[in-house]
Amino acid sequence: MTDRALVAVMLGRFVRARWGFRFRTRARFEAWQRRRIRSFLRRIPAAPFYRSDGSRMRLDQLPIVDKSTLLERFDELNTRGVRLVDALDVALEAERSRDFAPLVDGDLTVGLSSGTSGRRGAFLVSPRERMLWAGTILARVLDHRALGQLLRPWESPLRIAFFLRAGGNLYESVASSRIRFAFHDLTQPFDGHVAALDGAVARGVGPDVLVAPASVLDALARRALDGSLGIRPGLVVSVAEVLEPETAGRVKAAWGVSTRQVYQATEGLLGVSCADGALHLNEESVFVEREWLDAEHTHFAPVVTDFDRRTQIIARYRLDDVLRVDPAAPERCACGRVTAVLAAIDGRADAVLRLPGTDGLTVVEVFPDAVRRAMALNSDGYADWRIRQTGLDVRVSLADAAPDAPARVASVLRDLLSTYGCMASVVEEPWATPDPAAKVRRIVREDVS
Ligand SMILES: [Zn+2]
Known about the structure:
The chain is α/β, with parallel strands linked by helices. The chain has helices at residues 3-19, 26-43, 48-51, 67-72, 74-77, 84-97, 127-141, 144-151, 169-172, 190-202, 214-225, 245-255, 368-376, 405-419, and strands at 109-112, 122-125, 158-164, 179-185, 209-213, 235-239, 259-265, 268-273, 279-281, 286-292, 299-306, 317-318, 321-324, 341-342, 344-348, 353-356, 363-366, 384-390, 393-399, 425-429, 443-446. The longest helix has 18 residues, at 26-43.
């Protein structure tokens, strides 16, 4: 594809994602989505993994795959014959050198999924797919004011400060004379970034848009509130981590704006919040099947089919995430969209505590939203928290805890666990300063088997 054709792909998607994709009813939307899935199914035999299935197949006849399938059959799951070793070589070299330009097979970028549990997954993205992504994200994230600034050539370019742990190559694909990115590599010391932001403000080129993982937004908002950081972003976007209500509140207090949320995994762009604050699944590109985790059908693991992708086929891929929906949510959001709205992204599957029931027979699952609500009750008593389950122990550590906070927190957690009817002991652990380059995961179940 030529550069001009790629820009056309991006603009086309931008226009559709911003003003198009409007459906009068959910049923009409689903009919449109079924057509997109049918044409996706006609294309996927280009990947050897799906070749033998022929062209008659239905989506629900395809096997459900996960990260281990992806790694074991990587070479057959992409349509360009890229081998896993070559993709990993490029990606690991990029992470080591912090130069995220390298490509595999001429023009493909490689993303690595987080390696918090086991091996890391590798994902190939073509230039066309990057442009579709860029068009969608710009259309869905930029508010009216930011978009106006972007489109009016006599105004200064839109300045976006971007805090990332890994490659910015995906994001650089949207850079232009109207959009300037300042990348802040989170493996570098945080104070250096704060100084760089203040330096930009002093030169009159402070960021209009701030994009960062939730924990970094929280740290920046704290600095803004205590007067040690002078940026005034008009748009704040949370990526890559669970956005806690406390962080959204702090951002609002610091800069007077609501935090937009992007649910982006290496596997794809899975959700974006709308102007009305609802976090919509990105069902215009991804078909999401729900594997329910509870009898009430409020928590599920998503099984995703990304029908925009043609290079690495993501079909019925089970993600290691726990998503929550409100069964009473209306079919149509206030913003006019009929795509599904998430009540929250609760975190990874191993953020669900699994403890034996007091009856000694059952295993009780305690979902992260319940734990977060319990922790919020005493949040005036500490600056941050982590919970780690090992065996029958629920280990709590608190940062900068007030003298009585550990006892208050332990008592609330014991109440929670007894309400759920499970056996566990709550253990206090000293706070360990987290690695700023690591993704923040407040709740983790460590399997000891
Ligand atoms: Zn909405």
